[in-house]
Amino acid sequence: MPRRPTVQEVCARVARTLHQERLARNLSMTRVAEGAALSRQMVSYVERGLRVPTLDTLVRIARVLEIDLGATIAEAMREK
For the purposes of burial, counting CB atoms within 10 Å of the CB of 31, is it exposed (0-12), middle (13-18) or buried (19 or more)? Predict the structure, then answer.
């Protein structure tokens, strides 16, 4: 049976995806932070995996990036 990823691994994968999506859309951390009504530092912490964000924080960032948060989390939870 394949091993399920740990919570830490899922969080790291989601953070990596958010970072990649921000770069793909050529958005600065400042722009994402302003659009999400968060501090730039919080966006940085989330992207680098230094903070485990609340659902509210993830939803705010996902809206600015125009990504499907549910699909992002589901993908992060798949075995790799």
Answer: middle
**Residues whose CB is less than 8 angstroms from the CB of residue 19 and which lie 6 or more positions away in sequence, other chains included:** 47
Dihedral of the alpha carbons of 16, 79, 71, 61, in degrees to the nearest 10: -20
Whole-model pTM?
0.91
- Asked if 4 and 79 touch (Cβ cutoff 8 Å), the reply is yes
How far apart (Å, rounded) are the C-alpha atoms in residues 5 and 19?
20
Structure token pair of residue 75: 């993908």
* Tens of pLDDT, residue by residue, the chain (80 residues): 678 899 999 999 999 999 999 999 999 999 999 999 999 999 999 999 999 899 999 999 999 999 999 999 999 999 76
